[in-house]
Amino acid sequence: MILSMTGFGKSIAAIPNKKITVEIKSLNSKQLDITSRVPAAFREKELSFRNMIAARLERGKVDFQIYAESIGAEPTVSLNVPLMASYKGQVEEMARQLGIAWPDDWYSVLLRFPETIKSELPAAISEEDANVLFDAVSNAIEALMQFREKEGRKLYEFFTKKIDNIRELLTAVEPYEKERVNKIRARIMDNLSKLDGVAFDKNRLEQEMIFYIEKLDVNEEKQRLAQHLNYFMETMESGSGQGKKLGFISQEMGREINTLGSKSNHAEMQKIVVKMKDELEQIKEQVLNVM
């Protein structure tokens, strides 16, 4: 069964004094593109997290985030008041020397200076806490994969419906084929009858007419399109990781439909071809979401 590249996974875990939330989102992309935001205390494990994601997700634009929230009595951050007092004194001295006014909003000015906020998160986490964190990341990945499977089933149903619609339209072409040939033959004969004083070899005319009508024959295009429709369904059922292949098949389907339209030379057949193109465009749009 095919998988979607769209997905979301979330997992929550706890380590001493902290609640850890892991979130992973993915969208379609030709390659694997991971963007991560990890607290400084967990930064040394970031590469391992990215490797875990790459091993399971394979493709997609992935947004990976870890949030750490204090659940203890003490805050995880605090203001560095002595340093802020030093900054304030320097700003006041600078204002006196330059003859300019002091800031109207000291809070916003002082908080912009570096290291005015002190983090109480440890520089590194223990091995036991790291294992809890890895489990949380693994659970979030698994939740995302389940989301991808659910979306993949929806895509499968969508593609199946669209392929069936194209098959029905292909069948609808058949009644017009014989009618089209008769109309072409009648139009040519009618035009010839209007040419006064022009003699022509009827046998040669018949040969040329047969040659012309054979050039407009669409049986090969219909057979190849039917084969592509079957191949598309077989590929979907062969497993995940078939997105690029399905894209190639849909391109081949488009070629046959375009040729069918250029050869149709019949108003009703051309209307059917337009409907086929509409169904195929919807397939092409959604194929971009397939793993």
Automatic annotation (TrEMBL):
* Span of domain Endoribonuclease YicC-like C-terminal: 174-290
Which Enzyme Commission number(s) are listed? Answer: 3.1.-.-
Q: Where is the Endoribonuclease YicC-like N-terminal domain?
A: 2-156
**InterPro entries, per this entry?**
YicC-like_C, YicC-like_N, YicC/YloC-like
Q: Which domain of life is it from?
A: Bacteria
Listed A to Z, the keywords are: Endonuclease, Hydrolase, Nuclease
* Cofactor(s) the protein requires to work: a divalent metal cation
**Hydrolase as a keyword?**
yes
Q: Name one Pfam family in it.
A: YicC-like_C
In alphabetical order, the GO MF annotations are:
hydrolase activity
UniProt lists the family membership as follows: Belongs to the YicC/YloC family.
For this entry, the protein name equals YicC/YloC family endoribonuclease
